[in-house]
Design brief:
Layout lengths: L2 H47 L2 H7 L7 H14 L6 H19 L3 E5 L5 H10 L4 E5 L2 H9 L5 E8 L3 E2 L1 H9 L3 E9 L3 E4 L10 E4 L1 H6 L1 H7 L4 E4 L3 H10 L3 E5 L1 H6 L3 E4 L9 E8 L9 E8 L6 H11 L4 E8 L7 E8 L5 H13 L2 E9 L4
Helix pairs in contact: 1-4, 3-4, 12-13
This protein binds prephenic acid.
Prephenic acid binds next to helix 1, helix 3 and helix 4.
GO molecular function: chorismate mutase activity; prephenate dehydratase activity
Function: Catalyzes the Claisen rearrangement of chorismate to prephenate and the decarboxylation/dehydration of prephenate to phenylpyruvate.
Protein name: Bifunctional chorismate mutase/prephenate dehydratase
Length: 377
């Protein structure tokens, strides 16, 4: 068989497989619509039998189910026989579920704007591209947009592998009624971006979010030690400035480069090759166990010897793995602190609930910020 007829035959096979995939995708979408109908019916029935006082607090019509999505993605990865990579199939199913959820109810997700930020990339990675993104000017505004029900969920950065915690986000959690309902990690690649009219000879200033400046500090010190660095509200804002004014250079990622049609003067200038940021998904509801969860709490103890040991010892005694611990000033007393602790397991697990009771007895404040599925992508 010559090359052309061999190709034609294979393409016919691909066309036929595509038709089957297409039919199955729409069958799946119809199933999701049925799921929405069942959820709505159950919700309306429960509303009829509940007193007005209970209605707002106990009954919520939840189309987005993070625990179920995490289970679907875990099952797909586990069953994958190749040749497609586990990540590739997981990403495809991420988008399929995103489209199915949009048929049930389009989700509005708040994130730090403008368009082109890493937080937007994290939101799309977590929810898929069928989500409706709503940009916000600050991290506080992301919290407010979800608290005021203007948006269904929000995405906020919480820690970076080079620079550590995002203190601003942690501080917002202390007084917020919102729950953490998911996490997503994003590999951060930073580039030196310029608009038309800027070259290495006429650079006046380098703009970026302070985190991006910190993550590429060594590279900038070596290559542009004398150029002024300006911290701005986001990397995307820096990209917008670089596009608007010759002489301004932005440190930002690929999405910002595309958004503002900038070219790269240098690529991958982050100081650490594994530079990764972790983001949290915030919402108004608690998430049931998925079978592979994490829990985040904030605790404040009396300022006495052994206080931190007393807080951590129950985790050790019960064999529960801590994944993170951060300290922040309490803001109510001088030299008093609150601890942000993250660990494996769900607040509804027997062992976790025993630990939480014990901690509550020995602390001034214990707030469970949420139990949520571990990042699936
Ligand atoms: O299982 C559900 O509850 C669904 O709504 C279906 C589905 C899916 O497409 O698989 C869609 C949205 C949810 O977030 C979880 C899963």
């Amino acid at each position: 068989m010559d090359e052309q007829s061999e190709l034609n035959k294979l393409r016919q096979q691909i066309d036929s497989i595509d038709s089957q995939i297409h039919e199955l995708l729409n069958k799946r979408a119809s199933c999701a619509q049925e799921v929405a109908r069942v959820k709505t019916q159950a919700f309306e029935q429960a509303q009829q039998f509940e007193s007005d006082a209970d209605k707002s607090s106990t009954q919520q019509l939840l189309f987005y189910r993070p625990e179920r999505e995490a289970q679907v993605l875990a099952r797909i990865r586990e069953a994958n026989q190749g040749p497609l990579a586990d990540d590739a199939v997981a990403y495809i199913f991420r988008e399929i579920m995103s489209a199915c959820l949009a048929l049930e109810k389009p989700m509005e997700v708040a994130y730090l704007g403008p368009e082109g930020t890493f937080t937007q990339a994290a939101a799309l990675k977590h929810f898929g591209h069928a989500v409706i993104g709503v940009t916000q000017p600050t991290i506080e505004a992301v919290f407010s947009a979800v608290e005021s029900e203007q948006c269904n969920y929000g995405v906020v950065p919480v820690e970076n592998s080079t620079e550590g915690m995002v203190a601003h986000t942690l501080d917002n959690f202390i007084n917020s009624p919102l729950k953490i309902c998911g996490e997503v990690e994003l590999r951060i690649r930073l580039h030196l971006l310029v608009g038309e009219g800027t070259s290495s000879d006429n650079i006046k200033s380098i703009c970026a979010h302070q985190q991006a400046l910190a993550q590429s500090r060594n590279w900038l010190d070596q290559n542009f030690p004398k150029v002024e660095r300006i911290a701005v509200s986001s990397n995307a804002e820096a990209a917008r400035m670089a596009a608007a004014e010759p002489g301004i250079v932005a440190v930002a990622g690929d999405m910002a480069a595309q958004q503002y049609s900038l070219s790269k003067l240098a690529s991958n200038i982050e100081d650490r090759a594994d530079n990764t940021t972790r983001f949290l998904i915030i919402g108004r509801e608690s998430v049931p166990p998925s079978g592979n969860d994490k829990t985040s709490i904030v605790v404040s103890t009396r300022n006495k010897p052994g206080a931190l040991f007393g807080l951590l010892e129950p985790f050790h005694r019960n064999g529960v793995m801590l994944t993170r611990i951060d300290t922040r000033p309490s803001r109510t007393e001088t030299w008093a602190y609150v601890f942000f602790i993250e660990f494996e397991g769900h607040a509804e697990d027997a062992v976790v609930s025993t630990i939480l009771k014990e901690i509550e007895e020995h602390s001034i404040l214990l707030k469970v910020l949420g139990s949520y599925p571990r990042a699936a992508l």
